[in-house]
Amino acid sequence: MLRSPADLARLAEVGAHELEGASAHDVMSWAGEHFGDRLAVTASMQDTALAHLASKAVPGIDVLFLDTGYHFLETLGTADAVEAVYDVTLRRLTAEHTVAQQDALLGKDLFATDPDTCCALRKVAPLNAALAGYDAWATGVRRVESPTRANTPVVAFDVRRQKIKLAPLAAWTDEDVDAYIAANGVLVNPLLSPEYPSIGCAPCTRAVLPGQNARAGRWAGMAKTECGINT
């Protein structure tokens, strides 16, 4: 039975206090103990550090992958590998309409003319629908990724969705991620590189320039910096 939003808000306060300075594994273990199968993890399939860590802390955990219809083939292949190798239950979330149907309804290449609406339809709406069946969800957002993520809490109450939101890797540096990947043989998207440190949908991802932050290659040339899932 799902907990009430008021109960979740109170538990988020407890978790934020108890898990201050805790390891990412301890954060996921805490969440697994409190929520069991009402806990999910989102995964972009850029690297799979969080999915791997979650599979060790909460075996069989649901991993939510937003299959937008615009992904690189390498990203889809990484999702397939995660499903085959990790002790998780992969759920592929899709939008109400296919890309072709969306083109017919709203015009071709909505990502170029109205990227906010494209993300809302192909990412935010499917995730919100899926999260209705959970009490808590974990994201791989890290503070060092961009200025908009610099104050990401490890545990918080997601007011918009009325769920507990966890960011177990919030305090991890890029070096921390690299070390975890190397130590644990973590699956990584073949595209991930210094030129492509942040991988999203193919039409909205380009190589970054020297000195730019990791997410500068996302929606390049636009004011947009986030898809809307974490804002």
TrEMBL record:
Residue ranges annotated for the Phosphoadenosine phosphosulphate reductase domain, each copy included: 43-207
Keyword annotations: Cytoplasm, Iron, Iron-sulfur, Metal-binding, Oxidoreductase
Active site, UniProt feature: C227
Catalytic reaction annotation: [thioredoxin]-disulfide + sulfite + AMP + 2 H(+) = adenosine 5'-phosphosulfate + [thioredoxin]-dithiol
Enzyme class: oxidoreductase
GO molecular function: 4 iron, 4 sulfur cluster binding; adenylyl-sulfate reductase (thioredoxin) activity; metal ion binding; phosphoadenylyl-sulfate reductase (thioredoxin) activity
EC number: 1.8.4.10
Pfam families in the record: PAPS_reduct (PF01507)
TM helices/strands, residue ranges: none
Note on cofactor: Binds 1 [4Fe-4S] cluster per subunit.
InterPro entries listed in its UniProt record: PAPS/APS_Rdtase, PAPS_reduct_dom, Rossmann-like_a/b/a_fold
A GO BP entry: hydrogen sulfide biosynthetic process
Gene3D superfamilies associated with the record: HUPs
Keyword Oxidoreductase: yes
Pathways involved: Sulfur metabolism; hydrogen sulfide biosynthesis; sulfite from sulfate
GO cellular component, one term: cytoplasm
Keyword flag Oxidoreductase: yes
Named cofactor requirement(s): [4Fe-4S] cluster
Location of this chain's protein in the cell: Cytoplasm
Binding site for [4Fe-4S] cluster: C118, C119, C201, C204
Family that this chain belongs to: Belongs to the PAPS reductase family. CysH subfamily.
Stored PANTHER family: PHOSPHOADENOSINE PHOSPHOSULFATE REDUCTASE (PTHR46509)
Protein name: Adenosine 5'-phosphosulfate reductase
Species whose genome carries this gene: Nakamurella flavida
